[in-house]
Design goal:
Belongs to the organic radical-activating enzymes family. The protein is of the alpha/beta class and 296 residues long. Helix content is 31%, strand content 17%. It has one domain: Aldolase class I (TIM Barrel), CATH 3.20.20. Strands 1, 2, 3, 4, 5, 6, 7, 8, 9 and 10 form a 10-stranded mixed sheet that branches. Helix 3 crosses helix 4 and helix 8 packs parallel to helix 9.
């Protein structure tokens, strides 16, 4: 991390000496919340909740980000890897179904150390890696044997969209290579027959953006043609226009029920069966946690 190339930004920041990378972070782990979370896919949250740790900073920093404050590093506190181990074990003690690492890319080396130590101290529940997928396959390989469930986004097909909203025109190519590495590590889904909770596997999430149903269909077709029923696909309609997009007309509205329905019908038509949809209107700021340093 003295010449950081952890992610495809390869910004070469000296994060060990206090330099700040594109992610907005030094080498000190910063997190904004650690708690049981009940709003993930049912096979992740179950009834007991997913033990989420929200890390501050992000290497994508999408303009519409639902976790805007922590993505920009404006919320959170510094914790040591040793304290992160304690958080993992406390979440397990509180009944978490899994440990859910949210936006962890830029702290991957420290997380690897914390996971190894926590497993040596009795951490036994599945580990979920929850990412925007702008990842380096080389970096992801360090997680092999440590992560049980990958929960990546596949946000955009169009390089114009990814350039405009995430300053990453190469997003689709990069994310597809990262998702391929994730699948290589965990392979087909394994569910607990008694609880229905996922123990191993991958769920690829796609969040519909307003007016972008055609882009969404291209993503779903790619995923189904590439992976078939070997993964789950989560088709999400919870996009919520927050104040930072007030001046971006294309983003300053929710996804209409008609847009969402068109994409769902397309998914059914091409044969997607292993998946999740969101019922009713999920676009609501109440789904966004308070990043109040709870559980840290």
């Amino acid at each position: 991390m003295s010449d950081c190339i952890l992610c495809p930004r390869a910004c070469h920041a000296d994060r060990l000496d206090g330099g700040v990378g594109y992610c907005g972070q030094t080498a000190d782990i910063m997190a904004a919340r650690a708690s049981l979370h009940y709003w993930e896919e049912p096979c992740i949250s179950g009834t007991s909740g997913s033990g989420t740790v929200f890390f501050s900073g992000c290497n994508l920093r999408c303009v519409f980000c639902q976790n805007h404050n922590i993505a920009l590093g404006k919320a959170g506190r510094v914790i040591t890897p040793e304290h992160l181990v304690k958080i993992f074990l406390q979440l397990q003690e509180h009944g978490a179904n899994n440990i859910n690492l949210v936006t962890p890319t830029h702290f991957l080396p420290q997380i690897v150390i914390a996971l190894q130590q926590a497993k040596n101290q009795g951490l036994s529940i599945p580990i979920v890696y929850n990412t925007g997928s702008y990842e380096s396959p080389e970096a992801l390989r360090h997680l092999e044997g440590l992560v049980d469930i990958y929960l990546p986004d596949l946000k955009y097909f169009s390089p114009e969209l990814s350039a405009a909203y995430s300053h990453a025109p190469d997003y689709f190519e990069i994310a597809c290579a990262a998702i391929a590495e994730m699948y290589r590590q965990v392979l087909d889904p394994v569910m607990d027959p008694d609880t229905g909770l996922m123990q191993r596997g991958m769920i690829v999430r796609h969040l519909l953006l307003p007016g972008q149903a055609k882009d969404s269909k291209k993503i779903l077709r790619y995923l189904h043609e590439t992976y078939g029923d070997h993964i789950y696909i989560s088709i999400m309609n919870q996009y919520t226009p927050l104040p930072q997009v007030a001046d971006i007309e294309a983003l300053n509205r929710t996804v209409t029920p008609e847009e969402y329905d068109r994409v769902l019908r397309f998914a059914e038509r091409i044969g997607i069966e292993q998946g999740f949809r969101q019922e009713g209107s999920a676009a609501c700021e109440s789904f966004i946690p308070e990043f109040d340093e709870r559980g840290l």
